[in-house]
């Protein structure tokens, strides 16, 4: 008898994989808000400039776009015959279909808080936010306030108006679900290097600054300063254990080391000298640090000092700061000083510092002449006033031909 064939039964099994975790997303539409305070001084002098002509605020940035406030003292609409002042908010940068909410507030200067407010915030809009199609598009009011009423109101004080503007740029973002997030801490490199300086661990050079000792590390200094790099890695100071610095104050050298190791300034010390009764800008810690930055070619320290000194520019101080900027190669600060001095030339020429500039910095006087000439070229006025000021700077006389005697 023959054997029966063996029959094998095979069953198919379908493997079912694990389900992926569900994900989600959410669309969020909100506004990025920002405000600008616009002060209009000399309102009575602005009247009569003409219908459709405006005074513009400085531009300000909200939601990635630039904006400006336009104030029309004689109104924007010819049909109103200058009976109203007009106020508008304009898109001052390139943009297409920028959607935004606006608020314009004319400040009551009596202290009674009875401000005149036009606002889209906190109320529903029938057609949604306003859309500005292109650069130069504006939103506002042709009949913002009747001019006769404005001029007898408490909104106008000392011939001055104050306007607050708030812009809320509409944005839409997608928030996606995330199962896990890991927070990355802020950089603490400056803290670690600062501890290296404070503990003096592994220091290999000592600076004797007017008798006060400072321990430091040649490699750190060389990495931060091209001058130290040249001295320690390429020059004769490579094997030196002690370096004498006679022409710098210990507090200035200490502040410079603090910056080299921590990449920051000691703001409290700078503010203390800035608000003190120090009669001369060059005696402040900031000015002395600017000198140190120039000496050791510390570019970022120079720029930080320029930024601090820029805050102190005034009619009485601009000549001193200009001389400092020129001496220590602070190009940005020098440019700001020249522009400020050219724009306020008559007042600057009567300041105490200007005589020093004339006697000790003749090259700067020449540069100031060129800056004034540039301002004249940009001016659309008749030039009579600027020409007389030019003569004033050129020969030291005032606009009536008299010689100026500087204050002592």
Automatic annotation (TrEMBL):
- Domain of life where this protein originates: Eukaryota
Query: InterPro entries per the record?
Result: BACK_BPM_SPOP, BPM1-6, BPM_C, BTB/POZ_dom, MATH/TRAF_dom, SKP1/BTB/POZ_sf, TRAF-like
Q: What does this protein do?
A: May act as a substrate-specific adapter of an E3 ubiquitin-protein ligase complex (CUL3-RBX1-BTB) which mediates the ubiquitination and subsequent proteasomal degradation of target proteins.
Q: What is this protein called?
A: BTB/POZ and MATH domain-containing protein 4-like
Annotated BTB domain residues:
203-269
Q: Which gene encodes it?
A: LOC107002925
- Pathway in which the depicted protein is active: Protein modification; protein ubiquitination
Gene3D superfamilies per record = 1.25.40.420, Apoptosis, Tumor Necrosis Factor Receptor Associated Protein 2, Chain A, Potassium Channel Kv1.1, Chain A
Question: Sorted alphabetically, which Pfam families does this protein's record hold?
Answer: BACK_BPM_SPOP, BTB, MATH_2
* Annotated segments matching region Disordered: 376-408
* Domain MATH: residue ranges: 33-167
Family recorded in the similarity comment: Belongs to the Tdpoz family.
């Amino acid at each position: 008898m023959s054997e029966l064939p063996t029959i094998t039964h095979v069953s198919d099994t379908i493997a079912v994989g694990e389900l992926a975790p569900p994900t989600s997303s959410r669309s969020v539409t909100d506004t990025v808000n920002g405000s600008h305070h616009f002060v209009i001084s000399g309102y009575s002098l602005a009247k009569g400039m003409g219908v459709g002509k405006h005074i513009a605020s400085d531009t300000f940035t909200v939601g990635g776009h630039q904006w400006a406030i336009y104030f029309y003292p004689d109104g924007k609409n010819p049909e109103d015959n200058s009976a109203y002042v007009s106020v508008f908010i304009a898109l001052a940068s390139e943009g297409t279909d920028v959607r935004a909410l606006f608020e314009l507030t004319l400040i009551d200067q009596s202290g009674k808080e009875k401000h005149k407010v036009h606002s889209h915030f906190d109320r529903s809009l029938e057609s949604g936010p306003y859309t500005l199609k292109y650069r130069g598009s504006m939103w506002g009011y042709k009949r913002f306030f009747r001019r006769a009423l404005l001029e007898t109101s408490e909104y106008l004080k000392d011939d001055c108006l104050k306007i607050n503007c708030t812009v809320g740029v509409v944005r839409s973002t997608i928030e996606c679900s995330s199962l896990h997030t890991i927070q990355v801490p802020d950089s603490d490199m400056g803290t670690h290097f600062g501890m290296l300086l404070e503990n003096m661990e592994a220091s290999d050079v000592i600076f004797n600054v007017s008798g006060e000792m400072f321990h430091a590390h040649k490699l750190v200094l060389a990495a931060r300063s091209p001058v130290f790099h040249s001295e320690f890695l390429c020059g004769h100071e490579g094997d030196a254990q002690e370096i004498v610095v006679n022409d710098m104050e210990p507090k200035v050298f200490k502040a410079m080391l603090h910056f080299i190791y921590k990449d920051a300034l000691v703001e409290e010390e700078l503010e203390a000298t800035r608000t003190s009764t120090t009669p001369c800008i060059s005696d402040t810690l900031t000015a002395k640090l600017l000198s140190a930055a120039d000496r050791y070619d510390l570019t970022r320290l120079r720029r930080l000092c320029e930024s601090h000194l820029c805050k102190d520019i005034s009619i009485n101080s601009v000549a001193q700061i200009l001389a400092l900027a020129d001496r220590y190669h602070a190009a940005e600060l020098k440019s700001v000083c020249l522009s400020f001095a050219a724009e306020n030339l008559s007042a600057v020429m009567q300041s105490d510092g200007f005589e020093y500039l004339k006697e000790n910095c003749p090259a700067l006087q020449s540069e100031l002449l060129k800056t004034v000439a540039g301002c004249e070229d940009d001016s659309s006025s008749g030039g009579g006033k600027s020409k007389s000021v030019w003569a004033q700077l050129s020969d030291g006389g005032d606009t009536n031909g008299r010689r100026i005697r500087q204050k002592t």
